[in-house]
Amino acid sequence: MSTIGARDVQLATADRTTSDGFAGSSAMVRLERVDKTYESRRGAVQAARDISLEVADRELVSIVGPSGGGKTTILKLVAGLLRPTAGTIWVDGNRVEADPPQGIGMVFQAPVLLPWRSALENVTLPARILRLDMGAARRRARELLEQVGLTGFNDRRVYELSGGMQQRISLCRALLHRPRLLLMDEPFGAVDELTRESLNDQLLALWQADAKTVVFVTHSIEEAVYLSDRVVVLSPRPSTILGIETIDLPRPRDGSLRLEPEFAAHVRSIRASLGLAA
């Protein structure tokens, strides 16, 4: 178990970078001294301050922290949906500027599906938008729906399905075009605990079968430990990095891991970083 203090979260490849700040780095995602301030009628609100972080290719990293502490803001900055007030962001070697980067899939807390369309039609929606081959997209969609346990539900309308099923469809939709980076914003926060654990296992199975980089925002420390290679711990607003917990637990993982002393030790360590009672 290893926790790194915020000021020690340095960019390991800094001595190999060139003038663009990124070349030579193997990271899929890199944030360098990123700030974000929102302007409003009541004045400026700083959501994130001096965030420097690298996420390696095929790494699964979770972000935890207090509500309103900037976790979602950081995810939106990486996705190019927001512009940083200061600092620079790279995704897959390209600086994130005016346009959202390519090759990203996103999953939100709410499934954001078209309820009058079928499960299969919702999953294949990105193919229509991106003008991909629809035959190949349907085959890929059926494979994904099978992998998340929704075989037989391809033609069911979304409004007929449970919240957990809808979130599985949302995950399949995000994976349809085989993104190299998957951004997930509290995707399982609205489902019951048993469903959440099942979704955790299905996410890990998908990630291990088709390795990609995942950045996962959650309020659940236990969920973060179970899923992740590393857990980034944020302070209250304005967000700064309090520490990064390296999760040195074996893979593949299953539910029995939650009963192990090493699992509990990681949870306690992260709680301590957040100033929470053990």
SSE topology sketch:
Blueprint: E1 2-5, E2 27-40, E3 43-56, E4 60-64, H1 71-79, E5 86-91, E6 94-95, E7 104-107, H2 119-123, H3 125-130, H4 134-147, H5 163-175, E8 181-185, H6 193-209, E9 213-217, H7 221-227, E10 230-234, E11 241-246, H8 261-273
Parallel strand pairs: 4-9, 4-10, 7-8, 8-9
Antiparallel strand pairs: 1-11, 2-3, 2-5, 5-6, 10-11
Describe this structure as you would to a colleague:
By secondary structure, the chain is an alpha/beta fold. The chain is built from 8 helices and 11 strands. The strands form 2 sheets. It has a 7-stranded mixed β-sheet with strand order 1-11-10-4-9-8-7, sandwiched between helices. It folds into 2 domains: 2-103 and 179-273, Rossmann fold; 115-171, no CATH class.
Number of domains: 2
Strand adjacency order, main sheet: 1-11-10-4-9-8-7
Specify the structural class: alpha/beta
Model regions low in confidence, pLDDT < 50 over at least 5 residues = 1-24
Using the alpha-carbon principal axes, give the shape: globular
Order of helices and strands: EEEEHEEEHHHHEHEHEEH
Architecture of the largest domain, according to CATH? Answer: 3-Layer(aba) Sandwich
The CATH topology of the largest domain, please? Rossmann fold
Largest sheet: 7 strands, mixed
Average pLDDT:
88
Helix content: 25-40%
Q: Determine the number of helices (DSSP H or I, runs of at least 4 residues).
A: 8
Task: Give the C-level CATH assignment of the largest domain.
Answer: Alpha Beta
Tell me the β content: 25-35%
Gyration radius from CA atoms, angstroms: 19 Å
The CATH homologous superfamily of the largest domain is termed: P-loop containing nucleotide triphosphate hydrolases
Strands, count: 11
